[in-house]
Structures
1.
Amino acid sequence: MEDIRKHHEDTQCVHASFIPDDTGAVVTPIYQVSTFSFRDVDHGANLFSGKEKGYIYTRMANPTIEALEKVVAVLEKGYRGLACASGMAAIHTAITALVSAGDHIICSESVYGPTNTLLKTVMSRFGIETSIIDTSDLDAIKAAIKDNTRVIYVETPGNPTLVVSDLAAIAELAHGHSAKLVVDNTFMSPILQKPLTLGADVVVHSMTKFLNGHADVVAGMIVVKNEEDFKHFRKVLNQIGGVIDPFNAFLVARGIKTLAIRIERHCSNAEAIARYLENHPKVDRVHFPWFKSHPQHDVAKRQMTGPGGVISFELSGGIEAGKTLMNSLRLCTLAVSLGGVETLIEHPASMTHASMSKEDREKAGITDGLVRIAVGIEKVEEIIEDLDKGLAKV
Ligand code: LCS
């Protein structure tokens, strides 16, 4: 399919990772090799200098990995993708590619805990300063921008509060100050939100989540917009070395074939469960972007095509009630991560966001009583029945 970019994304999910070979294989096979032989010394030298195209060494490029990079880049409407060993490897590589000592980053306050910690405790040691702010507030961004701001890093909806930031407006602010907008699109997947089409410069993913979808791989992806960025990011990734391996790349490409239909079910299940929770007398507050009560509901409806599969909520009984609920469930599994076919439930303050300071958590609204549910694709009535039995014990 030469013009896969013209096809509907349902078709792209199935076909865009296919790179035909002489065998007639109908999926791109696993090239589980570390290195590729050269015909002769001149061929090797030409591959290294770029005079000839071909494979050299899997950290630099590999056909199975390229197949995965292609499908995600196509779905994100980007130029090229760069597959990484984990979501954190993708974030680290993207940040490292864009900033130098003395530069300043603005980062959303409601992000996956280790993203906040990477910027505040690791990157800070290399002379990179970060302001952690509420990126749903454009005035707060304007106030935080400095002459040396090079990156605005936004996770939307934010993990775990589902706060939504206006990507088109932030892109405009960033570009007015020669900064780049980097968006973590993990919670949406390219099916529900395409940040590059809204003005973002770089997209990052934890492919561990919806893209792979089956809780059996840890992987990440960066998608860039043009050849220049691609060459630069490829060099940085090649030196840092946080690349995916071919087997995991194969599994994620396999997962993506069903991404569009899985996302449909994640969204419809999540909406039904969010409604159930909202109407439950023991639930104080439900964070869900598709509800009119969500503070950025209008922005969400404008830039997202569905709510995604994650809900967070607070019980009237606080953390003790949350613990009773989480310890009582039988179908929903007590585990971190999200975006897989199975429903998972967890406690952000002591688990996914434990690496953040309590002060940063409180500022971001990650209260001790907050519970996060990553809704799977099981029969929704059965998930609700499980939650109902658990809530009855609270
Ligand atoms: N970005 C987001 C939005 C995430 O939720 C995660 C992981 C990452 C990046 C990092 O990706 P990884 O390196 O794990 O592939 N989020 C997790 C979570 O909420 N529970 O467990 C992991």
2.
Amino acid sequence: MKKFILVSIFFAFFSCNKVDLPKPNVIIIYADDLGYGDVSSYGLGTLQTPNIDKIANDGIRFTNGYASSATCSPSRYALMTGTYPWRNKNAKILTGANLIIDTTEMTLPKMFKSMGYQTGIVGKWHLGLGDGPVNHNEFISPGPNEVGFDHSFIMADTQDRVPTVYIENGFVVNLDTNDPIEINFKGNDYGLPSGLKNPELLSMMWHHGHNASIVNGVPRIGFQRGGKSAMWSDIDMADKFLDEAKKYVSTVKDEPFFLFYTLQQPHVPRTPHPRFEGSSGMGPRGDVIVEADWCIGEMYKYLEEEGLIDNTIIIISSDNGPVLNDGYYDEAVEKLGEHDPFGGLRGGKYSLFEAGTRVPFITYWKGKIKPQVSDELVTQIDFLESFSSLIGSDITSKDGIDLSDVFFRNKGKGRTEFVLEATSRTAFRQNNWVMIPPYKGSPFNESVNIEVGNSKKHLLFNLDKDMSQEYDLSDRYPEKLDDMIKRYEEITGDDLGEVKELILE
Ligand code: NG6
Ligand code: CA
């Protein structure tokens, strides 16, 4: 009996605690290719981002915050599902591909929905659409709405790929049915001008790839015919996403909501609105970061005006590290000046070295989170489980861990280990050590001018003393290397699949 009473008290306490758990609104602002050194509060570059800084300085600014991957789709997959992207063979950079999240899989927005939240995404998607050939003139499904979002206003892949149209809840926006859209990535140019054939029609010249259909003077990846009335205006894209994000918040603000606000900047093609042209002195790449920073400031102001700021968690991060020339001549290299988007880290987008995955990473909750700079190791894979724990859901994930203390309560410990991914290869971080297995292929990606991390032997770095990974310690610490290889193999098990084929024996 005594035992029964104790158990009842325990359960009463536990469930009452659950009822009392907060249900803050959550906005994850997710930039595309924003580097560790691109946010001025990190103090590593010269570009100024005052609006992000304000949020960073009043929240927790993580110095060891990671995207799961050095490219976009895998990072988004991991953020959405709490599963390492290398476990899913389809989680690679997508171009016109089908949805890579199984509609039965648990996701971050599904978890929020199960706890009574409204859920929306505005911005870049890049997780695929449909489950067979996609007809853009009809309802497009499955997509974001089938994996947990009540509302979606997206571009399908990236700004450099067709279709160059917005898709709202499965329908292309402003489509004239008399001018249907056709797209392909196979080389059929429909007899229309292309970047390859018609350089004279371009306002921005391509450097590598990006030489198919021309839209608004910008050559793209893939061919598109029709859909003229639906085509987006590149220079208005930031304003459009901001308006749609605010509009979404205005429709759901009386209930708890989760908004995934996924910015297109500073991914190529970099097309700042004219009012931001020249604002950074660094050419279009700097200008679109200033533009993105302004959007974040406007969103913040909007939350203040609507009386939502006290009850809204804001997270700011990026899907992968920076790149300067990612396929267009846009003066990103020439006008960089003293700025360091890589923040002193080695590599960049596409790389197994630090600059590929270590990104700006900020959590903010007015009045709840105390300003802090945290060196704890945290990743975007942990959002699902951490938010689940914060709002009292029992949902867990395969590879994420509950870091709600570290993210939202200024206490607790981060991860001790993490397997990062870059273009179908993986590396292993354990505390302050990083082990990169040997991989086939060139150590250097010439087109983008980035060291990607392929080497003929295992590499071992100690980030504590050598953040820029200059000194390979594999010969000096063979036991440490062996331990790390063993643990890496334990975690990855049989799930490495194609990654294994790339590893040199
Ligand atoms: C690459 C594109 C690059 C970029 C990337 C995706 C070429 C030559 N390069 O294939 O420009 O679009 O895909 O970037 O086409 S990501 O940030 O969405 O992963
Ligand atoms: Ca990206």
